[in-house]
Amino acid sequence: MAHFLSDLFNSIFTPGPTPSIIIATNASFAGLQLVLLVLLFLTYSVHFAVLSFLCAGLWWAINWFVTELETANQKEKEANQIREARKVRDVTPVEDSGTETEGGGNQSKELPPAPRSEGLLRPNDLQAALRKRRSLGEASSGDLSTDSEWDKVEEMGDMDR
């Protein structure tokens, strides 16, 4: 028990969810649920039922958050392993067979490919998007005010007459 308490005290100062913190949190919530259940049976007050429901929701949310953190840490470890494997692969020299390929020769001198961004526009894509916007705006008279639109309506009315 003394070892658990010292481990619990030390885990307060370490980042992330440690096993001793998780055990202490779950034990505290279980004790709180037990106290709320006893008070509910002694007083028959709906307040303790509501407090028990809120306690259960918070208890579930904390455990869910801990599992999400553990999943994120696991994915980060896997990503680091993949990065290390790519570094090792990119650093190892490629033997030149003496024949030219479409790739352009020795791959160890080339820069590693840039990481793909799914949702972000690259500078070339951004320029193309801006050109599209400009070309759409150029189709009109270039003046985006309401007055120019009324002028066009008046011109259309003059043409009908």
TrEMBL record:
Sequence segments annotated as region (Disordered): 77-161
Keyword terms of this UniProt record: Membrane, Transmembrane, Transmembrane helix
Compositional bias segments (type: Basic and acidic residues)? 77-92, 149-161
Which InterPro entries does this chain map to? Pkr1
Q: Where are the transmembrane segments?
A: 20-41, 48-66
Q: Indicate what this protein is called per its UniProt record.
A: Pkr1-domain-containing protein
- Report the source organism: Stereocaulon virgatum
